[in-house]
């Protein structure tokens, strides 16, 4: 057992120290756990301060309420109570041990053994705890792994994965954020061997992790490792025959300087599936993206390329922005630039085009149906037909005609 307790954390500087002090007064045996300890050791910002305690959840509720702290039973079946102080929630979970797991869910029992609780966590860097004095309790060498940039499972990696297959994807997310240098070979072998287990997870859990990986750091090398271990083709079977090509497209997008947009990165991966057989829609439906997310990915992949050759003047930009949302136009341009990067043909004009798409005012068509009704056109299909005609004329002219000019053109059309 590794019990590395030197260099205590300086908790007094934390902005939430007053709230933690009140919790610790009610629950003196409680400790900070998981990501909070990991990120405090790394000097990174902490968003969630979770705690664990040996007391059963009913006692936690009673102690908090006796101390005048609002206690919400957010997950009593799993031993979790949320303490609410000054509008902020602090999850407090009773120490647990696994009784039975099925790869997705765990049946747990309470324990008072901190090591037993730490042993059920995924990675060594997430298995540390910190008591009210700032002393770090580390049973599995997480602190050394954190310093070395090594992401390693607690105990038997294959067993950890069989307990919850989502840990395969969590490995890639944590490797991207905390890994440095050579990867732990045993861990990589276990991840590769457990790739098929991902198919037994709910697609919502899979997409939640994929989205976080896509939006995080070191995306290119992370997806290259996912491809090499067979994980990518399980998560995105639409790329079954072209995983390596998909990773190259993603790497080209990153090299082109595109923004850190997870959905744009997903579009880069799926673009080849679109070329091969129209599978972009299949993928976004299977992943159960939100309606907004799916619409963006499909519009970026399915639309015509936006390049400096295609968009050469202000009128072209105006017409494009009148037809599609700005973020879709930019997405198509970034994918087109990535293709140029991949082929070694990054033609001039990209920076100017992208800046123009980002800053150009989106033209607004100046007429609405009520304007046509005011001219005496009867309600019904004729309104839509005439409105579409004037919109086509307005767009052909570079989207610059104002309301008066559009009405004048329409009047001439009606008079003809």
UniProtKB/TrEMBL annotation:
Pfam families cross-referenced by the UniProt entry: PolyA_pol, PolyA_pol_RNAbd
GO biological process: tRNA processing
Alphabetical list of SUPFAM superfamilies matching this protein: Nucleotidyltransferase, Poly A polymerase C-terminal region-like
Signal peptide span: none
Ranges of residues in domain tRNA nucleotidyltransferase/poly(A) polymerase RNA and SrmB- binding: 186-240
Matching CDD domains: NT_ClassII-CCAase
InterPro entries in the cross-refs: Bact_CCA-adding_enz_type3_sf, NT_sf, PolA_pol_head_dom, PolyA_RNA-bd
GO molecular function: metal ion binding; nucleotide binding; nucleotidyltransferase activity; tRNA binding
Cofactor: Mg(2+)
Domain Poly A polymerase head, first and last residues per copy: 30-152
Keywords tagged on the record: Magnesium, Metal-binding, Nucleotide-binding, Nucleotidyltransferase, RNA-binding, Transferase, tRNA processing
Family: Belongs to the tRNA nucleotidyltransferase/poly(A) polymerase family.
Name of the protein in its database record: CCA tRNA nucleotidyltransferase
Organism classification: Bacteria, Pseudomonadati, Pseudomonadota, Alphaproteobacteria, Acetobacterales
